[in-house]
Amino acid sequence: MWKLKQLVAGDEEREESFLEDESDGICSLSYTQRMYAFAACLLAGLVCMFLSIIVFVRPIKFAILFTFGNLLAVGSLRYRACSANKYDV
């Protein structure tokens, strides 16, 4: 819908996608802050995955914890990716 409004209005100066707009806040963090956020998300994800193994006999709890743990672990990589994207020309 935003692209449609952009085409109708003739405003073509802004070519960034929605995800690039949202990631500017993450990439504006310092290197140390990104590493702390990466470590915290990864650790929380690993803890959730470990807890899911403990409650393996209850399928719903297992599924929720395991899924949330995987999302946190994979999401933590976004903090690492910003350091690589920050220095692209």
Automatic annotation (TrEMBL):
<dbReference type="InterPro" id="IPR007305">
    <property type="entry name" value="Vesicle_transpt_Got1/SFT2"/>
</dbReference>
<protein>
    <recommendedName>
        <fullName>Vesicle transport protein</fullName>
    </recommendedName>
</protein>
<dbReference type="Pfam" id="PF04178">
    <property type="entry name" value="Got1"/>
</dbReference>
<keyword id="KW-0812">Transmembrane</keyword>
<dbReference type="GO" id="GO:0016020">
    <property type="term" value="C:membrane"/>
</dbReference>
<keyword id="KW-0813">Transport</keyword>
<keyword id="KW-1133">Transmembrane helix</keyword>
<feature type="transmembrane region" description="Helical">
    <location>
        <begin position="62"/>
        <end position="79"/>
    </location>
</feature>
<dbReference type="GO" id="GO:0005737">
    <property type="term" value="C:cytoplasm"/>
</dbReference>
<dbReference type="GO" id="GO:0012505">
    <property type="term" value="C:endomembrane system"/>
</dbReference>
<keyword id="KW-0653">Protein transport</keyword>
<comment type="function">
    <text>May be involved in fusion of retrograde transport vesicles derived from an endocytic compartment with the Golgi complex.</text>
</comment>
<comment type="similarity">
    <text>Belongs to the SFT2 family.</text>
</comment>
<dbReference type="GO" id="GO:0015031">
    <property type="term" value="P:protein transport"/>
</dbReference>
<dbReference type="GO" id="GO:0016192">
    <property type="term" value="P:vesicle-mediated transport"/>
</dbReference>
<feature type="transmembrane region" description="Helical">
    <location>
        <begin position="36"/>
        <end position="56"/>
    </location>
</feature>
<dbReference type="InterPro" id="IPR011691">
    <property type="entry name" value="Vesicle_transpt_SFT2"/>
</dbReference>
<keyword id="KW-0472">Membrane</keyword>
